[in-house]
Amino acid sequence: MKEIKNIIRQFDQTPPEEKLALATVVRVEGSSYRRMGARMLVSENGNWVGGISGGCLEGDALKRSRMAILKGKASAITYDTTIDDDHQIGVGLGCNGVIDVLFTPVDRSRADNQIELLKRITGGPRKISKLVKVTRSENSDLLGELLEFTGSESLQILKEEGVNIDELAQAVRSLDKSKNIHLSDELSLFVEVLPPAYHLILLGHQYDLYPLLRQTIELGWDITVVAPENKVSPMEGVNLMTPEVFDSIEFDDYTAVVLMSHSLHTDKENLRKLSKKKPKYIGMLGPRVRSERIWAELAEEGDAIPADLMQNIYAPVGLEIGANTPDEIALSLLAEVKGVFALKQIAHLRDKAQPIHERDEPMTFK
């Protein structure tokens, strides 16, 4: 999502008279540094933002993007790093993969051009969006077309190509991850499932908040800090809210919450509120014994944490990477959030039976 935001920012800052093209990775077979959906916005003067590889293919992509601008037509190219051919771009990179990239000129006269569409999606309500891009077509005017899927009505442009729109809509609706759809030898689509940016809600205001904010901003996630007024220094990209309006915060499947007030009572009351919200991730800063005390007190007060919510609580918070400083703990925490939402098997500190840190035993000389 950060890459998309950077592309939108570059688009808005580019003079209207300067022409642009968008390069998009639409298919990956085998190994590749970037995956499907990676983007690169190129201007006719050679400026670009984003990327389609680790820097290996950008030079050729820059030339092809400027060619798309010059011709005013979309084109597709396959970079095959699995073959031994001196004339093949990408040979010797060691990636051992096949990458299809679509180069599409950006038509500023269209209110629904690719960038304006991305802008509307990222600036609207938090939801999972599905984008349908035509990656192969005998109709040159159709190649590179980008549609936001909202149902059968949003795919009508494909009806003239002999596509059964209702069947296609059903297939797109069923997807939970990005995928290519081959309708015929002449027509292929790339359906990109685009979730909203992760939303990190931090409940606290002590000094260890700031390394976490800086790293989260760098990742391009949405951030909300809930703290008493005037306790947190304003930072660009950070939404500040007071505890009194906590109930107005919207939670979804991409929302993570961290209890980090350093006050046992405050964290306990916040966890009590979160029991009704049931976010997918709740991190509790501090040792396990502290969290266990909070859970026990809530149970004694008649507000025991439901079993299904307990599975979403990570205490101690973070991954076992040997983190000691606030910056390292922030890295450990954010890596855990990413792993949880990506459904990856990772080494959580909450699963560690021993103390987080080794106990310091003094040396004894006899």
TrEMBL record:
It comes from the Bacteria. Residues 18-80 form the XdhC- CoxI domain. Residues 200-337 form the XdhC Rossmann domain. PANTHER family: ALDEHYDE OXIDOREDUCTASE MOLYBDENUM COFACTOR ASSEMBLY PROTEIN (PTHR30388), MOLYBDENUM COFACTOR INSERTION CHAPERONE PAOD (PTHR30388:SF4). This is XshC-Cox1 family protein.
